[in-house]
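User: I'm putting together notes for a lab meeting next week and I want to include a structural view of one of the chains we've been expressing. I don't have a solved structure, so I'd like a prediction I can at least talk through. The sequence is below, exactly as it appears in our construct file.
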Amino acid sequence: MHDILDLDQYPLHAPQSRAYQDLVARCKEDLAREGMCNLHRLLRPEVAAKVAADISPRMATQSIAHARRHNIYFQKSVAGLAPDHPALQTFETSNFTLCADQVADTPLAALYDWAPLGVFLAQVMGKRALHVMDDPLARLNVMAYGAGQALNWHFDRAEFTTTLLLQAPDAGGAFEYRTDLRTDDEPNYDGVTALLENRDPLKQSMSLKAGTLNVFRGITTPHRVTPVEGATQRIIAVFSYYDRAGVRFSDEERLGFYGRTG
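Assistant: Thanks for the context. Below is the predicted structure for the 262-residue chain, given as structure tokens.
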């Protein structure tokens, strides 16, 4: 892993070291304060560039194209809200996706299965343990956003999401988010409306560098990626971990997400 990760700055391989413990503490603080933490350029920039270059031809010929109209909840309706409630306004998301079996020969697959990364993420998230998925398609996905494509406002179904940016676009493609907009007890529909109408002063934006690992609490922190501009795609890997072993999607879910079951 030394060849692909900056383990001098981020000693994920040395959990007994003071530097490792300090890193965990810093990430937990960031996660509590901002709803996310970043390990900037954990993946060495030259490795990120090579992976992106290797993946781009596959993205052009093997990926599945996604385009859907949705609201922030990815649900057709929400109990207690009228269909025309402004918190349920819809917008477009589109991208291209490669599944885990299509990137199995890349460093991404080795990194996803590398046990110290899972241990580190579990400590940052306050989990007893995290497990990789057994699903041959869903465990690791790589998504590309070309000119005009975007990931629009949404809450995640999972408590935490882990991504690794492989290639930043020429322009656009900013990551926008609003920390802890809702809680388990307070859905804050008025706050959601204000965010969607661009009236929330606490909305933040950042543009990540290639190689950055990002962990965020997407179940309470809504987020989006603004439309990409220019010829260079925004390419990002999504690592799926669970607090239980053996998680797999059903054939129906795989068919819906990826257009195939295996």
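A couple of points you could mention at the meeting. Helices lie at 18-34, 45-61, 107-113, 115-125, 189-196, 251-258. The chain has a mean pLDDT of 96.

User: Perfect, that's what I needed.
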